[in-house]
Amino acid sequence: MESFMHILNIFAEHDNQQGISFNSNFLEANVINILLLLFGLIYLLRQFLGSVLIARQTKVLLAIEESEERLKQANIRLEESQKQLAQTQIVIKQIKAEAELTAEKVRESILAQGKIDIERLTMTSKASIASTEGQVKQQIQQQIINLAINRVASQLQGQITTTIQSKIVEHSIQQLGGRI
C-alpha cells in the first residue's frame, strides 16, 4: 500500500509541473464512487459473463469432443481403407500370377498345337511324296510295259507266220472254251 501511495505522489508532483494535477482527495475525486460502480458492475456482470463463458466453454468442449470423435472415425476409416488396399494388392498379385500361369499354358498349348500341325504337315507331305512317287513309278512301269509290248509286237509281226497265228487263235479258243 505504501508503494501505491508513493506512485500516486509521483503522479501528483509530475502533473503539478505540467498544469494537470492529480487530486489526492478521494472524496472530491469520486474515486469511491468509481470503485463502488466498478465493484457493482463486476458483481452483477460476473454471473452474466460467467454464464456466457460457461456456455462458450461448453460449446468449445463439445466441438473438441466432436472433432475427437470425427478423428477416431477418420482413423477407423483409414485403417479399413489400408486393410482394403492390402487385400486389393493381394488380389492383384493373385490375378497377375494366374494371368502369367494362363499365358504360360496358352503358350505351351500353342507350341504343342504347332508341333502337332508340323508333324501332320510332315506326314501329309511324306504321304503326298510317296503317292507321287508311286504314280511316277506306275507311269514309268506303264511306259516300260507299253514299250516292251510295242517292241515284242513289232518283233512278233516280223516272226509270226500265218500258221503260228492260227495255232495261237486255236489255243486261245480252247482256253476260253474250257472256262465256259
TrEMBL record:
The keyword Membrane applies. It is found in: Membrane. CDD domains: ATP-synt_Fo_b. The keyword DNA-binding does not apply. Keywords: ATP synthesis, CF(0), Coiled coil, Hydrogen ion transport, Ion transport, Membrane, Plastid, Transmembrane, Transmembrane helix, Transport. It is a single-pass membrane protein. The chain crosses the membrane at residues 31-49. Belongs to the ATPase B chain family. This is ATP synthase CFO B subunit subunit I. The gene is atpF.
